[in-house]
Amino acid sequence: MDPYVSVIIPCYNNEEYLRECVESALSQTLKNIEIICIDDESTDSSSAIMDEYANQTQNARVIKKPNAGFGQTINTGIDAAKGKYLAILESDDYVEPLMYETLFQKARDLGFPDMIRCDFRRFYGEGANRTFDEAPLSTNPDLSNTLINPQKDLRFFELYNLMQPGIYSLDMIRKFNIRLNESPGASYQDNGFWFQTHTNATSAYYLPESFYNLRRDNPNSSIKSTGKVYAMCGEYDFIREKLIEGKERFHPDILKLCARKRFDNYEGTCNRIDPSFRREFIYRWKSDYEKLLAAGEVEERFFEPWQWVWLNTILNDPDRYYYEHEYWQPESERLWSRIHELEAENASLREELNGAYNSTSLKVGLAVTAPLRAVKRKLGK
Fold it and tell me: Which of 210, 263, 311, 317 shows the smallest number of beta carbons within 10 Å?
């Protein structure tokens, strides 16, 4: 009998958090599941930990592969999965025991829609010091507990664009060849999966209950990386290509919605990256939206009023946007620091000069040369 849910756990060097993650999958009340741990050539003890769990249970297995990044790792899991639904559980997160039973039972009750989404919690810390923030996918009550066709109703795209809280029909994924962008490392490839599943689905359901726990204090998380300056730009170029390929099936405004979502993510990127790259990134932001405008994919009604003002500022005067949003603040602080250094150097030189004026040697020299200077002044007259 094929499993009801295939749970993919991609892992690269997460030995500190991996046990909690795998044990949460093994503790699911839904027993007819398979757990596929995919080792992206970890260099710590993660591979051994995965082997340990796979040897203890029949419904867990490990796939080991050369390091190729998060996108390719998930795609490997998609190829290996045998379940009716696919779930993705990142190796530094964990899920509540009832998650997959609740979601699968809801799917069965509804006649097996293309996806079931649920809420999640962000968490920080460990043990008694662990804290949680509830994170609903949407605060719009009209979107919850009702079947929606995202190809006809764009409201479903209001849901937070995180792929992990939910299950997705493996038939849909394979029918439309839904794949993650195989860009290097962990570079926001979940955005592409989110867009492809939501645009290809014809039946989707949002259950407003929190089952997925998302870690937000892993120092190695991609969201904390300041070096991947243009990774989000590449991801949205990938998404746009996928939407153009399938636009005959999708809502006619899907590319305009994508341009709006791109804006949201560019704004987040600009706030996150190292300050030295921000002005350069804003000029890339301007260039990308000039191309989208030329293609007719940018329309005011998809933006909040303040976003539309900001976008036009970026297009017409990117330096103004840079300064108005205080992205220049660290640069300003460096300049003031250099000014203070120069002021200190100047004060030191003045002190040396004053010391020279008051020195005995200068006074003797001035006394010795005084007659010569007096003669010179007279001759000058």
Answer: 317
Q: What are the pLDDT digits (tens) for 123-162?
A: 998 888 899 999 999 999 999 999 999 999 999 999 999 9
Q: Name the token pair of 143.
A: 């979107």
